[in-house]
Amino acid sequence: MQQHKNRFRTDFLQIGRGFLMGGADVVPGVSGGTVALILGIYQRLVRAISSVDMKLLAMIRQGDLAAAGRYVDLRFLVTLGCGILCGAIGLARVMRYLLNHHFGETWSIFFGLILASSILVARLVQPWRFVTVVAACVGAGFAFWLVGQMPQLAPSGYGYLWLCGVIGISAMILPGISGSFILVLMGKYADVIGAVSQLTDGTADPSTFLTLGVFATGCVVGLLAFSKVLRWLLAHYEPATLAVLCGFLVGSLRKIWPFKEDKTSEFLEVYGLPPERVAAIRANPELVAEHIKVTRRIYVNVWPEHFDAQVATYLALAVGAMVLVFVLHWLAFARRSSRAEPS
């Protein structure tokens, strides 16, 4: 009975972790991989995904489904996946509301959460040496450069769409790098989201299914291939790999800086809008709000001109979020320590 209770509790916790990951995935600039790293399940997730290989297929062909389930950590993946799905659906409306009505405040909270989390991840890097410092700097520099890039017009063709799937899903499992943001940079975000919208509202045609099929194939290939690379790196170069991941978190702070200026009207072509609508919005930038959601707009960071109530609010929210992360980490550590003590 106690074993079943513990298993149920573990499943419930995994669903909760997945819920947080799914909620993070609906926030532009924040990835589920970031949350997985914060929650301490990142390496297990990478191992589980990378276990989809020929050995697993051999077990399935032999009918040994129980062994196959254990090999791929199926219970973990299913419970986590259910949580991710529920989080993406359940928190999408909440996050949309927060970003529409409390844009700067929401980014301030995420800025504090990720800054504190990067400090905790840095403590996992043992030992810190010259190589790990360089690795962290490279990761931070790359992420800082990447999230500062502006979207480009995408080439046509299904080969490029497949490549976007490979790169987008690979970015999604990296902490600090948003897969949806990568699609925006590569100019295919509007195409993919448009195809999904057509599928959900019943207006899909054969080209819609072809678009989603090619993109999904790229995602599967990218997920399986890149997870194996990550697993190998974590197994053979764990300190340096964790240092790079920590650098990704630090570099990604550029994307979630709360003080921003809307530059969407300068990059309207990447949204796939008709030329006449682009011209109308350029003539009247206020029309941006009617045609492009807040979560899909393009911003550049600015520095506040003076310290006022808004700056104080953003700073207080960021510090409060950092304190929350440190307190939760301390409580989790204290709980593990109490369990480890002999009775």
Concise overview:
Helices cover 73% and strands 2% of the residues. It has helices at 2-25, 32-39, 42-50, 54-61, 65-71, 74-101, 103-124, 130-147, 158-172, 179-185, 189-200, 206-236, 238-252, 275-283, 288-291, 309-340, and strands at 260-262, 299-301.
What does this protein structure show overall?
The protein contains 16 helices and 2 strands. It has a two-stranded antiparallel ribbon. The two termini are 22 Å apart. It has helices at residues 2-25, 32-39, 42-50, 54-61, 65-71, 74-101, 103-124, 130-147, 158-172, 179-185, 189-200, 206-236, 238-252, 275-283, 288-291, 309-340, and strands spanning 260-262, 299-301. The chain has one domain. The chain is 73% helix and 2% strand. Helix 6 (74-101) runs antiparallel to helix 7, helix 9 (158-172) packs antiparallel against helix 10 and helix 11 (189-200) crosses helix 12 (206-236). It is globular. The protein is mostly helical and 343 residues long.
